[in-house]
Amino acid sequence: MAWSPRRSAGRRLQLPLLCLLLQGATAILFAVFVRYNRETDAALWHWGNHSDADNEFYFRYPSECGRSGQGQRVVWPLPFDLGDEREFCRCRMINADFCAGAVLISFGAILGKTGPVQLLLMALLEVVLFGLNEFVLLSLLEVKDAGGSMTIHTFGAYFGLILSRVLYRPQLEKSKHRQGSVYHSDLFAMIGTIFLWLFWPSFNSAPSALGDGQHRTTLNTYYSLTASTLSTFALSALVGGDGRLDMVHVQNAALAGGVVVGTSAEMMLTPFGALAAGFLAGAISTLGYKFLTPILESKLKVQDTCGVHNLHGMPGVLGALLGVLVAGLATHEAYGDGLKSVFPLIAEGQRSATSQAMHQLFGLFVTLTFASVGGGLGGLLLRVPILDSPPDAQCYEDQIYWEVPGEHEHLAQVSEETETQA
Amino acid sequence: MAWSPRRSAGRRLQLPLLCLLLQGATAILFAVFVRYNRETDAALWHWGNHSDADNEFYFRYPSECGRSGQGQRVVWPLPFDLGDEREFCRCRMINADFCAGAVLISFGAILGKTGPVQLLLMALLEVVLFGLNEFVLLSLLEVKDAGGSMTIHTFGAYFGLILSRVLYRPQLEKSKHRQGSVYHSDLFAMIGTIFLWLFWPSFNSAPSALGDGQHRTTLNTYYSLTASTLSTFALSALVGGDGRLDMVHVQNAALAGGVVVGTSAEMMLTPFGALAAGFLAGAISTLGYKFLTPILESKLKVQDTCGVHNLHGMPGVLGALLGVLVAGLATHEAYGDGLKSVFPLIAEGQRSATSQAMHQLFGLFVTLTFASVGGGLGGLLLRVPILDSPPDAQCYEDQIYWEVPGEHEHLAQVSEETETQA
Amino acid sequence: MAWSPRRSAGRRLQLPLLCLLLQGATAILFAVFVRYNRETDAALWHWGNHSDADNEFYFRYPSECGRSGQGQRVVWPLPFDLGDEREFCRCRMINADFCAGAVLISFGAILGKTGPVQLLLMALLEVVLFGLNEFVLLSLLEVKDAGGSMTIHTFGAYFGLILSRVLYRPQLEKSKHRQGSVYHSDLFAMIGTIFLWLFWPSFNSAPSALGDGQHRTTLNTYYSLTASTLSTFALSALVGGDGRLDMVHVQNAALAGGVVVGTSAEMMLTPFGALAAGFLAGAISTLGYKFLTPILESKLKVQDTCGVHNLHGMPGVLGALLGVLVAGLATHEAYGDGLKSVFPLIAEGQRSATSQAMHQLFGLFVTLTFASVGGGLGGLLLRVPILDSPPDAQCYEDQIYWEVPGEHEHLAQVSEETETQA
């Protein structure tokens, strides 16, 4: 257990002090700015009592606060709002959730090579940039991105990848043997994959319009997920040694179908379109794990711990482009009166379908720019030498930051016991 | 890692090519036949705008598309429909889910002794037969089977078991040592049991009628599950060596209560009836694992990898018979106006309760026939020699079809590291 | 596998016979007393058909049967009711669920040192006392406790701790080496933590009033959980050896925020209040694991297997006191017309806010009394010598009560196979 040299008091205190600082700052912001909104406050909710209150409560809120609605205000990903309406509702929680998703994706690129303090600082920076990027896309450009192919996946992935590039460690092969997957952990990780698979349709459809919008988003996401699962198995066996499947591909690429329809699932993508998109995403993602990740590391010096480029980066960009295509094909015939909820600006005649498509494309570039510049800045921030980052030889090692009981001990006990019995 | 001899190119390509073929066929069928239905299509949904649309949307759909409704069309388990109404809705997804359940049950009988290509081919055949059997039962015989004691559990189990009989391997004991449960895997499998337990009430009640029907189905399923859990613990300790409990029993038989009320949970089974049924199912299932499985293998040459005969076969048949009994006892007094939604033909006077019971019983025989003939055909199909099935000595072994990192490596590293430190 | 000496037939039969006895008793009670209620019975539900039945069904039930409603009858935690209304509804299931939660908490204090028969007997006693305590609190004192800081957490924890005190084993260090956490099990246990974290907001809000009440409870619980998570990480690193985090703290103390707002989450706690409460609970809980648990064991002779005192005991009491405070601060201004659903007696003028606070405080004392006396009685009951409790040297050992396949075997096989290949 004597792996790591003793850390200095300064380094040991970084994590607790940063946690306490963030907690304190949040508490102050909450005390000053956050109030219950009408749906949550006992007095406001019961004021001017509505005849059919219960129903309205449940049925009105999603359309009111959906990311798909028109005329949104700046919605801060952290659950407070500096505007003059100091209120807070569940839709903000969903938004905060989405922002947390982007941060988790970025974590995937740098996990194991960074300490907890670095991860927290990165999260702090990313949350702010996520909010800005989302504001530009959804409120200024009025781009559609319900499931976040751009705002969550593309942004999170490239933010993390650029950051990982800045933190490049040429000596990382010293820790390489610890990065490989382990039989038990692989089974364990499949639980995560299964739950992500199951809940991805809800995830994509949560902020889309109630009714046909949510229904359509859910179904398109399911179609796409099934297609990406099948193409992952096909491609994994095709490129695997001796035709064998790779657990890492299945754990990840099977989910690419959810990422790729993030923008277009609420549009009239058609069931066939969803299938085709998912198939393509699964294939690209699997091939990425096999062929691109090693090149990224050796040529571009991007060390992508969990392969977020394959699951979130490429499928996210593909999803954004798919959104451009499907938005450009939008017609009054295909959407009928539903055009108002999916593309309000086209319905009102303020934009043509082609113009909406161009805005979508521009939104992708904005996202990539925010992600790259932000990731670069983040990398520089995380290279500040006083931060407690692990040495090259101890990356991917729990024991630096965690008290690990170790199965060695356990196995030792077992054999001890066996001897005692004998 | 040199377990398996190198596979020929032909065998290595079977899985990817079959996946791609199925994906392509599905895509073509989707392109030609599948369209969004009224609840999913932007134009259709908004057409002829309804005053109270949101509510109606949520409240009407289950009764419209429930398996419990009258006058159903053929509902294909694969999510497309060759009829003239080319539409698709969530109820089809539930149906597809149920079909997938039957296939997973059949997998349980042959897992470890078959390759992925064989499993895919089996699934293809079973999906077609599942659809035919369900059509005969629900639409021709107008049998009630909301939770699928017959259509899912009995069909899936006996299809798999007959198939396993045809694939009988006399030399399987060469791989026997790999089939036993392992401490860590047993804990892991309990996660699956817990989630199945929790969601079984939703599973059984999903296709039953909204309102009292779903409520009753949920409660009956809970009662039955608790009773089967208790009887599993009782019986497992009673028949276990030295009064000890067996994890395999708990993982499986505790769920038998959900299977046994699959047909009758939506009927007026009464809380006591649900308890009694669950108790019986848990007991039969536990005893089956202890006494029947070895006999099935040695005498009837049915090698049942996961014991699906105990969890799905016997409790499924028992559930079908329970449905016969409860249907036969249906009276206008007990159901009141609710008779219309549970037994529409009795309510309309087209059938007596006894006649409905006879139809239910006949439904069981139809299911067993479909399962047996189908399983036999499936077995013959899977014995085609070019299929990539594992040799007798390598059954229950991941490494033939999967790239396995192996804990050996990991343990080796650990000891290596320890030495390095020392 | 020859760890344990052979058990006598009498001891071996205790568990199955007790299970069968309980099952039989429940069945008789169900047969005599339990009937479907209006929402579940086919005839009752359809009788006097209501125009807008579906909606009413869904929207009325929670307010009718919520623990927050006034004028509740005695609600038995076991799903039957001896009153003259022999009916049963979902709210009873939620109640039974909550009662099961209290029993599981008590299990946490004595796990590993007791046999299954002892656990069952304890559960039987605790269920009765839980029902009595809840009746006194909710119906006689008309105390508010939606999420059960008092009725579930405080009661369950101190019942188990006092019981563990009575069962004190001075020689337990013989089994101490088996109690430590293991790397794989720690990862595995995190699944449980994650699901508890995710569903805690639903848990706390399930019995609170529909509308603003449930919404507020959900949000307060989320805020509190996030704060306790952050404070757990801060404190764990602060008190950990060399600034390292402890998995046991994270698994448990991160949930303390859910416990601490159990009473007050449905009140106007304010977002800041929820943050502060969660922060405090996470800190106390983490410090408890580090410093208090060893003292409890060495000085007070309370052997608390899972540390329920830290996760449920102290945060539960803190939550009850927080409820006293927030109830005492209730004003007509803050709650408006919502006061009727949160504090009906204050709204009707029967109690002042201060009086309600005093009742809340008295409720805590009642709970502690019930828990202490009940735990003491339970301990005496469980010390009856004929019960099959594990000897001191075999505590925390699965193999006494379970057939354990053992990873030894598996590892043996692996090495055997490797040799065979070599």
UniProtKB/TrEMBL annotation, chains A, B, C:
GO CC term (a single one): basolateral plasma membrane
Signal sequence interval, chain numbering: 1-27
Keyword Nucleotide-binding appears in the UniProt entry: no
Broad class of where this protein is predominantly found: membrane
UniProt topology in membrane: Multi-pass membrane protein
UniProt-listed Gene3D superfamilies: Ammonium transporter AmtB like domains
GO biological process: ammonium homeostasis
Reactions catalysed, as given in the entry: CO2(out) = CO2(in); methylamine(out) = methylamine(in); NH4(+)(in) = NH4(+)(out)
GO molecular function, one term: ammonium channel activity
Domain called Ammonium transporter AmtB-like: residue spans: 93-383
InterPro entries membership: Ammonium/urea_transptr (IPR029020), NH4_transpt_AmtB-like_dom (IPR024041), RhesusRHD (IPR002229)
Annotated transmembrane regions: 93-112, 119-141, 147-168, 180-200, 220-239, 272-292, 312-331, 361-382
Compartments reported by the entry: Basolateral cell membrane
Keywords: Ammonia transport, Cell membrane, Glycoprotein, Membrane, Signal, Transmembrane, Transmembrane helix, Transport
UniProt subunit comment: Interacts (via C-terminus) with ANK2 and ANK3; required for targeting to the basolateral membrane.
Its job: Ammonium transporter involved in the maintenance of acid-base homeostasis. Transports ammonium and its related derivative methylammonium across the basolateral plasma membrane of epithelial cells likely contributing to renal transepithelial ammonia transport and ammonia metabolism. May transport either NH4(+) or NH3 ammonia species predominantly mediating an electrogenic NH4(+) transport. May act as a CO2 channel providing for renal acid secretion.
Family: Belongs to the ammonium transporter (TC 2.A.49) family. Rh subfamily.
Official protein name in the record: Ammonium transporter Rh type B
Protein species of origin: Cervus elaphus hippelaphus
